[in-house]
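Q: What structure does this chain adopt?
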Amino acid sequence: MLGVNQFPEYQVPGAVQHQFNPYEYNGGSIVAIAGDNFAVIGADTRLSAGYNIFSRNHSKLFHLTSTAVLASCGNWCDSDTLTSILQTRVRQYSDTHENKEISLNALAQLLSTMMYGRRFFPYYVSNVLAGIYEGKGYVYSYDPIGHCERHTYRAGGSSSALLQPILDNQIGLKNMEEKPNVPLTIERAVNLVRDTFISAAERDIYTGDGIQISIITANGIEKRNEPLRKD
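A:
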């Protein structure tokens, strides 16, 4: 971080400045798409800070139940803390309710409440929750203090500004004069996730190395891995 120590000619005699920054940004990107009876969520596998790559095979997907997957990126220690507490709360719910899984809607509200409880020292993370509820796919996105929105598709993380316009065009059919009537199938959603990450990896140094994709249906969660550029 640049400061007055690097520019002694600007230093003021007798003035001492102390700084403390508890946050570190470790990058990462997320894409989630909800269909009529499925949800697809993907995240890259690069863990970095600045120009340093700490890991090329780092998972940002957390399987909370048989029908819900959370993707979390940003400050990794905050992501790790938040997801560990959330997984404990999910197990507590199951134990309290005779091994019944928490529903997607209740899980989305639980995550929102937990993040809002830390609003004065928020988790520095980007969270996207995807899953199915009563047979239909849903995607929830959050800001750092827990504000929750439900979407059909959503991008998050360091390259969200690159990913979201592609989803707006291909799924939201925005800024199109002749809108094609193409059904959103699981394979098309997976291909869109892969293509958006390939595009983002060309422009964002915090996104790359690989993609982990989880396909959520009523039959369970299928995992897939795709390669990305490593430079």
